[in-house]
Amino acid sequence: MSTESKLQPAVDTAEADAAVAASANGSSSKKGKTPVVAGADADDPPGGRPATAKEVEDIMRKLGKMDIMQHLNQSNGNDQKSRKNPKDMDKYKFWQTQPVTRVDEKVESNGPIEVDKAIEDIRQTPYALPKDFQWSLIDIEDDKEAKELYELLSLNYVEDDDAMFRFDYSAAFLKWALQPPGWKKAWHIGVRVTSNNKLVGFISGIPAGLRVRSHQQQLVEINFLCVHKKLRAKRLAPVLIKEVTRRVNLEGIFQAAYTAGVYLPTPVATCRYYHRSLNPKKLVETGFSYVPRNMTIARMIRLYKLPETTFTPGLRPMQPEDVPQVTALLNDYMKTFPMAPFFSESEVRHWLLPVPTVVFSYVAPDAKTGKITDFFSFYSLPSRVIGNALHTHINAAYLFYYAPKGLGDDKEHTQKLLKDALILARKEKFDVFNCLDLLQNQGFLDELKFGRGDGNLHYYLYNYRCQQLKPEEVGLVLL
Ligand code: MYA
């Protein structure tokens, strides 16, 4: 995962006002659809009716329209423009030298851009760093080094466009994220200042299996690229990327997948973040979300209130003996998406068995057969709130992999399952539940009162040409 997003602010227009007013008055413009009345939750306080799902949908849709207007207004050459939009290919000094799809290229077929190199043709020595810096592999099993990496990222990693929030991956999370089956220390690459040994740069690769349409293969997922704030714009990032590429190539791998908030040549898909408030008061206090006009905080609290108990019979935390069934269920579900990972049992054991404070996974068995029919997971990625007097962090849960009964063919069933994920996340004291518009997520975003975020997440493939995919064709979820 590589972009910070917060709830999109409403633009102050008559249309948005009307939408919010409709919700606040309880008036509805719905026609024909079965209303899922949020106010039906038994524990909803008396004295005000929360908006129906359709009303919320209308508000969200209208706010979505505002989003397009905001982006049009933004493209007047401000600082963010070159990061958010494509440049001419010859302006990408580094990326134009790499085997990636060009921004102006019309992709007719899918496949590698460059043929695999023979091992003896791969550079054997590390790329040169600027004077005063040296390479240093990070031993993520060592608590002291994991803490050094945590500190680099917690002060220098991804922020939202307004520099209000910064991802704060915990050290326990980083250990989990960097040590799946087949992980290699050689792919956890740090840069230190030679004189004082301070860690100032990092990039990582982990092994993974990915299928793109009918083709499947092993590749690497690249993540946690970071350069200390004081060393930005000095072309260190291209050196880190070339070094990880060299080290991955030495293991006979020539393709990679990665995500970023910035626009690079050239996304295979562009997804959007969505946020479901669980603790609206705190989110408003931190500036993550806002109180729309004609809405009050009390009303927002009612709007986002969740039941105390889950709906799905038998829902329980995933256990080691569930691994074979979850692997089969998840792989079957993943096959329904044109770009999706495939998992071995040991990968499912690593990625999906619960890890306290890091990843939360639940399964639901069929009442008669005991066979697992449903599964979902979410992970914990707090964001540091920059310069807020009341709060230091927002506790965010991110939807990870899931597999609903019947491969998601019953939309209402999937909605209920994901509502259970919200209920459990709230019980774990998360403030917000985030997800992208990939997988079948678009089928529950409105009904479960998610709001559109202000961040895009672009998906990229290295050395693999691929016709563009829609968000709902993406099954890959990166951390
Ligand atoms: S995405 C998360 C990235 N990290 C952050 O956003 C944290 C905060 N930012 C920083 O730490 C720095 O700004 C970074 C850039 C390090 C991002 N991915 O050194 P520079 C290009 C790829 O002067 P800096 C994640 O982790 C930029 O277009 N390239 O810039 C996935 C320009 O190239 P060009 C990026 O700001 C990473 C050049 O770098 C990114 O000091 C996947 C400028 O370098 C970016 N996010 O440092 C990496 N941002 O001139 C690719 C900027 O061409 C993996 N740039 O425009 C590729 C596959 C490798 C393995 C292959 C195996 C086969």
UniProtKB/TrEMBL annotation:
Xref: Pfam families: NMT (PF01233), NMT_C (PF02799)
Gene3D superfamilies noted in UniProt: 3.40.630.170
Catalytic activity: N-terminal glycyl-[protein] + tetradecanoyl-CoA = N-tetradecanoylglycyl-[protein] + CoA + H(+)
Keyword Transferase: yes
PROSITE patterns in the cross-refs: GNAT (PS51186), NMT_1 (PS00975), NMT_2 (PS00976)
Region (Disordered) residue spans: 1-55
Keyword terms of this UniProt record: Acyltransferase, Transferase
Coiled coil start-end: none
Family that this chain belongs to: Belongs to the NMT family.
Protein's name according to its UniProt entry: Glycylpeptide N-tetradecanoyltransferase
Annotated source species: Geranomyces variabilis
Name of encoding gene: NMT2
